[in-house]
């Protein structure tokens, strides 16, 4: 076959362009006459088909990769239909395990892990790397006398749903890297340890956490960003710690919180009504905090509260109007073990009866209102003294009270009197300031009037040398006459 010379530059062209550039004779040589012509007529369709197929191929590959990723992830984190627990004698025994933890693989014996040893001082980085360890669903290390938890200790447990570290001696300042790679964790139990501070971003990697138990520790400080990213948290227990202050913004990152337990802390001066971000809170426990006030105000943020525990505090007054307005869903209100006076307590219960609120009772005292213990100071016997009285008793229609109760009653009356006096003093002070300011303004105007400074200023503003005369001033007429 003779060579066919081409005169176009060395570029890449489609088959249709190449054939259309040939003469009829050359087309016959290349394509065999009419068949070659038909082929040239069909080449645009072929090019379009190839181009379209390329795009679809890319699309199919991408979809396949995404689907494969999700399927693989689902298989890796498969939840078993039944809960089975595997026990290991030592960490080394666990690390040497060859039986898979995934229920989708053969020889499956369980996805929950517990240890039978009694103590271990610390959990080091990569301690829990083992055959198929990423498929473990639950890890229980309760009561093992653990003191330290190093960063990355649980890094291989990517499918872990529950982590129990309660009843240990953990004193480590927990950081976010301690819980690295635990994005699927739903339950974290750190109760009954020796944790003293919750640092910012400690739990920020636990995006799916729903239950967090930090009760019975030694926590004094909870930094404002400690609960960042816990948007799915529903239960938070901070009871029996030493917390004195709660930042107003502390609970903003937990909008789905349903239960908050802060009982038995040191929140005597706290203001729960200022806490933000608790719009879905239903159960609030504030017992045993020596609270001397609870007054939900206009910016009270948790209107869905159904049960409120204010027992074992120092409350002697309660704003029932604010409670009815800002706690419309309230069903249970625990007021036991507060220094109530019976008249006040009876008024509180009467005011809240319309809202069908229930009041749990302990019934341990003979003097009570609806089963809630209270003290009544009505009159005292003229004979004897209250010095030796240790409990509230009723005898011969004379009400005896303890010295402490009497002192609390007197202090309360003095407090109310002082509050009224302070309000009166503030009102009087405000009136005095206003009167003094008014007097100063009057004196200034009087000086300006008598010295005719206003007239001089007006004359200057007019820009002339003409003497300004006040027609209302008789002295000016006398001077002009002279």
From TrEMBL:
What are the UniProt keywords, alphabetically?
Answer: Leucine-rich repeat, Membrane, Repeat, Transmembrane, Transmembrane helix
Q: Does the keyword Oxidoreductase apply?
A: no
- Which Pfam families has this protein been placed in? LRR_1, LRR_8
| Matching InterPro entries | Leu-rich_rpt (IPR001611), Leu-rich_rpt_typical-subtyp (IPR003591), LRR_dom_sf (IPR032675)
Any stretches that span the bilayer, and where are they? Answer: 428-449
Q: Which domain of life is it from?
A: Eukaryota
What PANTHER family does this protein's entry cite? IG(IMMUNOGLOBULIN) AND LRR(LEUCINE RICH REPEAT) DOMAINS, LEUCINE RICH REPEAT CONTAINING 53
Protein name (record)? Uncharacterized protein
Q: Which organism is it from?
A: Zophobas morio
Q: What is the lineage of its organism?
A: Eukaryota, Metazoa, Ecdysozoa, Arthropoda, Hexapoda
